[in-house]
Amino acid sequence: MCIGEIQFKHLTSDELEDYWHQCSKYMKEDILPNSNPQKTDEEAKYFLSAEYRDEITGLFKRERNRLRINYIYLNDKYAGFITYVLYDDMKNKYFGECFILEYCIEKSQRGAGVGTCFFEHFEAEMKRQGAQYFALNTTNERNRKFWMSLGFVMGRNDEFGNPVYFKR
Residue 38: its pLDDT value, please? Predict the structure, then answer.
């Protein structure tokens, strides 16, 4: 049961600068210091670099299987963001997959079921839009436990050797 009204706001190209501010804060305060295994200095620099930003922006602007960025609101107050790709191109080998790249819940909102509630709403909406299953990587043990509590299981390793978790 959710603790308030949840809203997702799709970001437009004009709003990407604010997103990059939020994403950089999330990377610096949460992902990089808590990654397990710890990110190398080179990996950390990459995730804060113009190269990474350009790569993600390219995914956001591409024609098919576009990266989507949503801000999450709880009772009209910003509570986090989610970035994902819903593979809707039937010619793509990942057709039907909803791959979650980033899932950030504001620290002040964590531990009270907010992240679970947001994901349940997101999952239902993505299934309405054609998602057949969900996939993601985790960055640390806390994240892994969170996603496993929602029914994700480890499936395969990605091209970098990192575990990919799935929920059908």
Answer: 67
Tell me what the mean pLDDT of segment 97-123 comes to. 93
Domain range 6-167, its CATH number among 3.60.40.10, 3.40.630.30, 2.60.40.1180, 3.40.50.10860:
3.40.630.30
Q: What are the CA-CA distances from residue 14 to residues 11, 84, 89, 104, 147 (Å)?
A: 8, 18, 26, 21, 31
Question: Which of 139 and 101 is assigned the larger pLDDT?
Answer: 101
Residue 155 corresponds to which tokens in the numbers above?
């499936």
14 vs 86: CA distance, rounded Å: 21
Q: Is the pLDDT of residue 144 over 90?
A: yes
Distances (CA, A) of 79 to 30, 69, 150, 158: 15, 14, 19, 29
Query: Domain ranges in the chain?
Result: 6-167
Q: Please give the model's pTM, rounded to 2 decimal places.
A: 0.90
Query: What is the DSSP secondary structure assignment for residue 168, as one 8-state letter?
Result: -
